[in-house]
Amino acid sequence: MNSSTVEPTLEEKVENLKVENTEENEVEANPEASTEEKKKKKKKKKSGKKKKTVVPITNFYPDEKYPEGQIIEYVDNNNYRTTDEEKRYLNRRLEETKWNDFRKGAEIHRRARRNAKNKIQPGMTMIEVANIIEDAVRTFANTPETKVAGVGFPTGLSLNDCAAHYTPNAGDKIVLGYDDVMKVDIGVHVNGHIVDCAFTHTFNPKYDGLLEAVKAATNTGIKEAGIDVRMCDIGEAIQEVMESHEVELDGKVYPVKCIKNLNGHNIGDFHIHDGKTVPIVKNDDETKMEEGEVFAIETFGSINGWGFVLPEGECSHYAKNSGADESGVRLNSAKELLKTINDSFGTLPFCRRYLDRTGQDKYLFALNSLVRAGVVQDYPPLMEKKGSYTAQWEHTILLRPDVKEVVSRGDDY
């Protein structure tokens, strides 16, 4: 298999995504300078500093043609696809619409996560962290209509033994700590084509072994994925790589476990999970990937845990069920809330903070009634064993007719 990573594009134009410099350097370099001199230098430096701002992505791509991700040729019985003229023609037709939407979303994702990595610091509240990411996505997308482009699902910021499905609700007081392991799961969509891509963010290097194991497992899943490939074969390969790792943490050695009831999945239009799952452990699922499908290849690993998760805690994530029967909704407040959900999100996942942004107030009873009626599905936090640590890495891949494209790949991971 031949693979190549796309070179960073327009790198010189993304200075707006670098962390703002703090006010030191020249003043601290001369500790003997008088207090008055220090003040003058600080004032001069501050007044001359250019503020870094996030701007719409179309400023960088006025022609609305976005760069490809990592291109990987198919292998084995898929070799003919690389050279087959019919496949190349079909790919060109699709490329004009669907693939370009994914590439736009991926470019927004790369810039939003770079911005986040530069700004996130210990001591921030989780709401501050979420706002940094989501405000950047909205600004890059540059549309007031959330169903046209923007945030594809609530930003996951799950900490430590929480593996997935946590984002802060209004009033959340949790503060990010130096020793926390945070899964950052960001969704970006363009015309309902969702880029689902995640990384694990830490400050303390003692967790590096865990992060490396899970990243290697995800890259294995990407390598194995392809048209007509069976899910069971992908899961077995991922597990073999993940569980070949051991991690030393605080003087103890732990095996890395696959969190077996968390999976990758295929992505549909306006649907983050579209029916197929990509397991991360050995299994008997002989379902095959198909040409033209889009998959989120994601793996989760844990140390000092069970190797599985359970739903627990206050819910933040929700999504309207596709094709749900709305006739059973009787409560007027629930009907009003459902109209807001339909108008603002459709079947895109949302969270309570997003309802707050629409102007909804005191909606929790109505929201719970929609859940009970089966119109909306709730997704509570997914928790590993207390005291464990979990990590996640994820990329979105496009199974184009002639090649496999890791559309969300960047120079960071």
TrEMBL record:
GO terms for biological process: proteolysis. Substrate binds at residues 165, 273. Coiled coil: none annotated. Binds 2 divalent metal cations per subunit. Has a high-affinity and a low affinity metal-binding site. The true nature of the physiological cofactor is under debate. The enzyme is active with cobalt, zinc, manganese or divalent iron ions. Most likely, methionine aminopeptidases function as mononuclear Fe(2+)-metalloproteases under physiological conditions, and the catalytically relevant metal-binding site has been assigned to the histidine-containing high-affinity site. Keywords: Aminopeptidase, Cytoplasm, Hydrolase, Metal-binding, Protease. One of its GO terms (molecular function) is metal ion binding. One of its GO terms (cellular component) is cytoplasm. Its EC number is 3.4.11.18. Residues 1-52 are annotated as: Disordered. It catalyses: Release of N-terminal amino acids, preferentially methionine, from peptides and arylamides. The keyword Metal-binding applies. Its main location: cytoplasm. Its cofactor is Fe(2+); Mn(2+); Co(2+); Zn(2+). It comes from the Eukaryota. PANTHER family: METHIONINE AMINOPEPTIDASE 2 (PTHR45777:SF2). This is Methionine aminopeptidase 2. It comes from Saccharomycopsis crataegensis. The lineage of its organism: Eukaryota, Fungi, Dikarya, Ascomycota, Saccharomycotina.
